[in-house]
Design brief:
Blueprint: H1 5-22, E1 41-42, H2 43-55, H3 59-73, H4 77-88, E2 102-103, H5 120-135, H6 143-159, H7 177-190, H8 201-213, E3 215-216, E4 219-220, H9 248-261, E5 262-263, E6 266-267, E7 280-281, H10 282-294, H11 298-309, E8 321-322, H12 329-339, H13 347-360
Antiparallel strand pairs: 1-2, 3-4, 5-6, 7-8
Protein name: GH15-like domain-containing protein
Pfam family, one: Glyco_hydro_15
Domain GH15-like: 19-287
Length: 362
């Protein structure tokens, strides 16, 4: 696939326009307003939406999101301090008491039973904020972010070893490799700012834990309890740099992802997935392309970009996932009956498609 400059600009504007159109006045991004279960703002998904807008030089929009996060987290400081006291007292803290990673449009903590304890989103926010400030030419963390950032840094440093839901809101008591990578990436990146106090021993401990407990047979595993691969393992290198893209462990992991998770050109989440019958996710397909772009294989990167581009609807939207030949029809129907068709447009899909396009430098 080869795209000319005009096509490149058109695609950039198309995906950026979808994100800008759906951003709320508060600064929040709701994952998919057309899908009843996704009318919330997740720190994880939205951090990459903000990052993609930074790459498109639309920093007013990404700044609005980061300010929304800082303002949303500020009132939780007292709750965090109570969590820390309970931890230091040796109390077993229920998952429902931990800080949420999914919020309402105006920063509401929706305590509705949805799996909401996910540490990855907090690390990803630190990383995305750091990238936003770097691309904006900032040399230190602006005052408006400092209290919330320092609280998040402390939260991650004290609770990174605790099991939590993975990025798919499943396997709630595992320690997930992608979650550890997200925390590592967030702490490492935000530590570049002089006003942020990060204990350098913590990222080093996280990396050591990944290499000693989350590598088997020369490749990464999904969690401390699951030896299979998950497409989110790409995060270990891209973008959080626990390992370089060309590290042998990373290469072996990606080879296993290609062998077991690439279906009809797209990427499923993990083998054994049942959500909507285990379709291929556009954002993961673009993520695999992003990995290959960073690893110096633009032809493979473009192949995955084109697969995702081919899933665009007549409205110009990118869905969450599409059925592939291995999709379980019964499970697909089960989810369709429960919630309707899967999310479309999924803003995270648009974000990752824009990120890959930027990295291809077409």
């Amino acid at each position: 696939m080869t795209l000319n400059l005009t096509a490149n600009l058109t695609l950039n504007l198309r995906d950026a326009d979808v994100l800008r159109h759906h951003q709320k006045w508060s600064g929040a991004f709701l994952a998919c307003e057309r899908f009843s279960q996704y009318r919330f703002c997740w720190l994880r998904d939205s951090s990459f939406m903000a990052y993609s807008l930074d790459l498109a030089d639309l920093r007013t929009h990404s700044r609005a999101f980061h300010l929304w996060v800082a303002q949303t987290l500020a009132p939780l400081k007292e709750h965090f301090e109570t969590l820390l006291q309970r931890k230091n007292a040796g109390e077993q803290i229920p998952y429902t008491d931990m800080l949420p990673t999914r919020f309402g449009e105006n920063g509401e903590w929706e305590q509705d039973g949805w799996p909401n304890f996910q540490l990855d989103g907090y690390g990803q926010w630190l990383w995305a904020l750091s990238e936003h400030l770097r691309l904006s030419g900032e040399t230190d963390l602006p005052e408006v972010y400092r209290d919330s950032v320092q609280m998040v840094v402390s939260y991650l440093q004290h609770f990174w070893e605790m099991g939590c839901s993975d990025c798919w809101e499943e396997f709630h008591d595992h320690v997930h490799t992608a979650t550890l990578a997200s925390i590592y990436g967030g702490l490492n990146s935000i530590s570049r700012f002089p006003s942020v106090a990060v204990n350098p021993e913590v990222p080093a401990q996280i990396k050591a834990r990944i290499l000693t407990e989350h590598v088997k047979n020369g490749r990464l595993v999904k969690s401390n309890h699951l030896d299979g691969v998950d497409a989110s393992l790409l995060w270990v290198s891209t973008p959080f740099k626990v390992l370089d893209e060309n590290d042998p462990i990373m290469q072996a992991t990606v080879q296993e992802i290609e062998n077991t998770l690439v279906r009809d050109g797209g990427v499923i989440r993990y083998d054994g997935d049942s959500y909507y019958g285990a379709g291929a996710w556009l954002l993961l397909t673009d993520w695999l392309g992003w990995y290959f772009a960073e690893a110096g294989d633009p032809e493979k990167a473009q192949k995955f970009f084109q697969w995702s581009e081919n899933q665009r609807t007549r409205e110009g939207h990118l869905p969450e996932q599409v059925a592939v030949s291995s999709t379980d029809p019964a499970k697909l129907q089960e989810w369709n009956d429960l919630w309707g068709s899967s999310a479309n447009p999924l803003l995270w899909s648009h974000a990752m498609h824009a990120v890959l396009l930027n990295r291809l430098k077409i």
